[in-house]
Amino acid sequence: MDKASAVHLCQADGSISCGACCGLYNVVDSSQKNLESLLLQRTLLFEQTPRTADHIDDFGRKIKSAMPRGRPYKEFHHCPFLGLVGENRQRVGCLLHPLSNGNENTDWRGLSWYGALACRTYFCPSHHKLANSYKLIVLAASDNWYLYGLVITETDFLECFFGQVEKLLGRELTQNDATLTKDGKKAVGDFLNLKLVWPFRRKNSPLAHYFFSDGLYAPLPAIYPGHKGPAPALDAIFRALHSEFKNRQEIKQATDIVEGMAGAFAKSLCR
Known about the structure:
About 40% of the residues are buried. The protein is mainly alpha-helical. β1 and β2 form a beta hairpin. α6 (about 145-150) packs across α8, α7 (about 155-170) packs across α10 (about 250-270) and α8 packs antiparallel against α10. It has 10 helices and 2 strands, in the order ααββαααααααα. A two-stranded antiparallel ribbon has the order 1-2.
């Protein structure tokens, strides 16, 4: 399997980007409506901010002081310089980046929490770990930055799903498989959307995903009452979705949902 990291995930195209490593979803209300409103307000305010270190620092302090307390992961920084970038402000990105509107190629990222070097050189585990074929399929199936950013760092979630598809096909997925048919895009899109609509999600569990390997926050196990023996084959997916099942019937229902989507995607590739 191709494990090269050539596919860029951070700013993929005009509408697809990810701010997860900057703590985008690590807020009290991580709904799309709230994040879009929050990021737009920041962006408009930053556009009126003079580009000096003092003014930018003051901007950051004001944004942080206005944020509600109670982030899901207290030790995971939420960057106040996340905003909407690009033409028509269509995607999430760094307001301090030299290419962001108004910065005139000046790199202000040294004023951020992690500093310019980290912002320039850090890549999430998905960048290094996910096969290029998987990355390209997710990109092809994604329509907006919000859901894309929620799922692209979920390496186990994605590898488990595409692994199931490969078992059905009897071969590994390739980059050519990222040319999705209408049915294929729907199947993958439906799977990714489980992150938002999963009926077996544990009550009050966060959408935010802590994907760093520093051991600060261990992933929550899925809860399988009445289940004996090894964990289900789709355990990686169920864990990523913070699942809590009431009985074996619900485990079967969940398995049928995911296997149905994997089967639909595999079928779309048999052409």
